[in-house]
User: What shape does this take?
Amino acid sequence: MASDTKSPNVAPATMGRIVGLLFAVGSVMTIASIVFPHSPKADIYGFWAIAAGTAMLAMVLLGCCERLPAWSYQGFLAAASLIVSLSLYFNGERHGGPSAGNQVLYLWIALYAGYFFTRMQLLAQLVIVAGAYAATLLIVHPGQVGFTRWFITVGMVSVAGSLVHVLRSRNDDLLARLYGAARTDLLTGLMNRQGFDERFELELERARRSAQPVALVLADIDGFKELNDRFGHPVGDAALAAVGRVAGGAVREIDTMARIGGDEFAAILPATDADGAFELAERLRAEISDLGGDDGESLTMSFGVVEFPRHGQTPETLIHAADRALYEAKALGRNRSIVQSGNSADARRRRPLALRR
Assistant: This one.
């Protein structure tokens, strides 16, 4: 796990099914230890109680795992440590019988905790295992030999659980980096089209639940094809990277700025109406014009602005509306921001504001 405060990104139902299966296997193994040859000193009634208890826990977990919260599995794992300790108590060793090696079952607890729990939760489970096993050995096998068994078992269990935890953490970190790389535009460092589409769906769903607006801004660089044809693709790439730096620094942390293809950029602005998005577009337009180009002329961009739910209810309708506004900005002479609307209240936005120099 990458974090010490959060469990891995695993559904609680999955955690419940796995620990439920472990309890079911434990019940079957306990019954097998009763049926197969065993120490005459073993407490058979105690083992039947363990088999019944683990079977009941398995049924609860497998039947209710969809409704149990993730934190509850820490309690189930603590119960598992108690059950393993009881199996050691009932195996007859305290009456002079041979050791059955039941302590190896603590290993499953450590492996589960190492994979599913945070570092502190894993440490808590290891402390429970160490305490439960120590208390059991004080009853069934006190003395120096008992301490040696405790030290070896607890050491093995701790190392195994820690290794699984480290491997899971590194795997989660790798997956997170791969996930981010798959949704990042390498040239600009902004989110790419795939990441933009996913984030747009998410923000619209949040807006529907909260009844707040979401603004979408589409933009592209004016005359970008001519820039590439005149100076070559390296200059065009440099212009895209420069625009990406300016655009990425102009938005809030909750906003999403993306390069969605070629010289096209898009911004998703949660809790923002068209007026607020228009102000951002104008600020970006002025800042980008200050970048300049290799021909001594300023880079310019045109912007189309729309707002959910005013201009559309779905990603497709909103993108289409913003694209129409962007097309209108191009048709009116480029280097301007247009809010998609035909009413007079938006007529002022058809003329570009004075650029800052």
In short: The chain has eleven helices and five strands. The chain has two domains: 12-182, 193-350.
